[in-house]
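In this supplementary section we document a worked example of the pipeline. Step one takes a protein sequence of length 139 as its only input; no multiple sequence alignment statistics are reported here. Step two produces a three-dimensional model, which step three serialises into structure tokens for compact storage. The input and output of this example are shown verbatim.
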Amino acid sequence: MLLNAVFMVVPVALLVLSVAVAVKNFQKKGNAKRSLLLQLVSFGAVASLCLVFPLVAGAAGNMEPMVDASAKGLQYLGAALSTGIACIGGGIAVGHGAPAAIGAAAEDPKNFGKAIIFVALGEGIALYGMLISILILNG
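The serialised model returned by step three reads:
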């Protein structure tokens, strides 16, 4: 029981510590790239801890429930990544396409129908990511 509590507290403590150090570093030196790098390294450390601890804890006992839990967790991770990355890509596409569509419609109102299609195509990327997530979770 105590070991489970430690496994839950350590990643949270690492994330809080990394945020505090990054904020202090940014306020002191104003180096945004270094702060971002620190956050990425901290995220990698927490992610590796979260993947390694259950495997080490399950090595002593029956591994089948641990393998099922790891597979389910990786399934959720894959679904989250497919939706998140697709939404970021869709946001970038809409962010570039919408101003161009507005500019084209401002110059000639007849171009509005053609221009809005490109904005809708950018939004479709996010829908495809969500569709892949649904397939991952139900597959």
